[in-house]
Amino acid sequence: MKCTAKNRAGKRCGRDSIPGGRVCNFHGGGAPQVQTAARLRLAALVDPAIGVIAKLLKAKKPSNVNLAAARDILDRNGLKPKEERTLDAVGETLETLLAVYNRIPDGSTDGDS
């Protein structure tokens, strides 16, 4: 969703709004009360999303669009399945294991720290 704030020319901002929010960080999306409202707005969608998934489970022809939307809502609220990664470490040195770990593309390590 795009920011709903308007610039001096009267046109909409065009930046992406914060998740669950209506404005970008530049137009107040960083304010604590705005972030709280955005979190509450997303949380209010959890129960309906679960209802959509339950209805799709019973349907003969599930809608992929509805399922994707419901999953997206649950993911944004921290209710996504846990990712699990395993590393076979038999006979490997610590340096080799660290080198492999630093190449895992999850954004948590970049090898520079």
What is the secondary structure topology, with strand pairs?
Blueprint: H1 32-43, H2 46-58, H3 64-76, H4 94-102
Helix pairs in contact: 2-3
Task: Summarize this entry quickly.
With 113 residues, this protein is mostly helical. It has four helices and no strands. Among the domains are: 1-43, no CATH class; 45-80, no CATH class.
What does this structure look like?
The structure is a single chain. This protein is mainly alpha-helical and 113 residues long. Helix content is 42%, strand content 0%. Among the domains are: 43 residues, no CATH class; 36 residues, no CATH class. The longest helix is centred in the middle third of the chain and has 13 residues.
In percent, how much strand structure appears in the residues? under 5%
Helix content: 40-55%
Structural class, by secondary structure, is mainly alpha
> On the 0-100 scale, what is the average pLDDT?
80
The secondary-structure element order is HHHH
Radius of gyration: 21 Å
How many helices?
Answer: 4
- Poorly predicted spans: 109-113
User: How far do the termini sit from each other?
Assistant: 35 Å
Largest sheet: none
Q: Tally of extended strands? A: 0
Q: Which shape, going by the Cα principal axes?
A: flat
Features:
113 residues, mainly alpha, 4 helices, 42% helix, flat
